[in-house]
Amino acid sequence: EKGGYDHFMLKEIFEQPQTIYDCLRGRLDADKGTITMSGIQQYAEQIMHAPRIIMIACGTSWHAGLVAEYIFEELCRIPVEVEYASEFRYRNPVINKGDVIIAISQSGETADTLVAIEKAKEQGAIILGVLNVVGSSIARVSHAGAYTHAGPEIGVASTKAFTAQLAVLTMIALKIAHQKQTIDEERYHVLCKELMAVPDKVATVLEQNDNIKTLAQKYKDAHDFLYLGRGYNFPVALEGALKLKEISYIHAEGYPAAEMKHGPIALVDETLPVVFVATKDAYHQKIVSNMQEIKARKGKVISVITEGDTVSPTLSDDVIIVPEADEIVAPMLSVIPLQLLAYYVGVAKGYDVDKPRNLAKSVTVE
Ligand code: F6R
């Protein structure tokens, strides 16, 4: 049932070209420029005019919410907040009439997320679910939503659910932005095509498998890792660090690259691997200077870069190359090498990557 792979985690990482495709299929028609999502269509007016969107989630799903924050604000011009469900439920959050809450959850059973949306629903918010498990508890509480269609995720560490969440959230943002006319026709069509091209590009990223396996061998004995990214890739840095912690038990931190100077840079010496999520985007020059700063302090730079980038390799000890893509969809590509890196480091250290210690697949108690 692992389909020839050593672990479910590896199988699920490799399934991503298919799962992302399954998620887009029947919804996004890039040639016609249409996005069909009935649950979202039903609430389109409310979403378009929402004074605020609040994403509620935990863990990896919370990271998907952070990427979505950038996408919704950019495309839809609606203020977005991203909340840890556990924090949101216990404070006395301000919820105004018309606020739209998007609950993001693979399992649909995470206790904190469930209670957080129940409370918000009582206060009059509209609850949309971006969920993988059909008919789950969160699905039952939600007014509407869109499933991720990633299929069962068995590995405890979330991989394919994350990219499917990003695909769904991007489709929702595009649909709303188009209807609201906060992006022009041309950009809308470009982004529809960019999204449709993601599955094939993910397949190309997976060709880096052997390269990443070698890198894992090289860096597996490090005690700490730093992951840095900016913009759409900042949450990807957080996700890369979380994956490594879960699977390899190596301490890792994700940071917005520019925040490094406000503290974490003190950690940098010749023993510290620093993973830069540095695909080409509006911030690229900025992150290149951050790379220079790490190199100047003798840190080991591993960078995830866009094909054709000739500058980053001169500042990196190791590079992982991903195909060119619009910055809005880039996280679905740049996260893949980080999933593989965590996987191969865990395997190299002899750990049970499908069932990391102390973790449960769904956290149904708070
Ligand atoms: C990370 C991981 C967890 C989950 C979190 C939320 O690899 O698996 O951080 O992402 O427990 O779970 P769901 O998405 O089921 O609500």
Automatic annotation (TrEMBL):
Top-level lineage group: Bacteria
Catalytic residue list: K361
Entry's localization field: Cytoplasm
Keyword tags: Aminotransferase, Cytoplasm, Glutamine amidotransferase, Repeat, Transferase
Domain (SIS): residue spans on this chain: 43-182, 215-356
Catalytic activity entry: D-fructose 6-phosphate + L-glutamine = D-glucosamine 6-phosphate + L-glutamate
EC number: 2.6.1.16
Broad EC category: transferase
Entry keyword annotation includes Repeat: yes
Biological process terms in GO annotation: carbohydrate metabolic process; fructose 6-phosphate metabolic process; protein N-linked glycosylation; UDP-N-acetylglucosamine metabolic process
Cellular component per GO, a single term: cytosol
Molecular function GO labels: carbohydrate derivative binding; glutamine-fructose-6-phosphate transaminase (isomerizing) activity
Subunit structure: Homodimer.
Protein role: Catalyzes the first step in hexosamine metabolism, converting fructose-6P into glucosamine-6P using glutamine as a nitrogen source.
Protein name: Glutamine--fructose-6-phosphate aminotransferase [isomerizing]
Organism: Parafilimonas terrae
Gene: glmS
Span of the entire protein shown here: 246 to 611 of 611
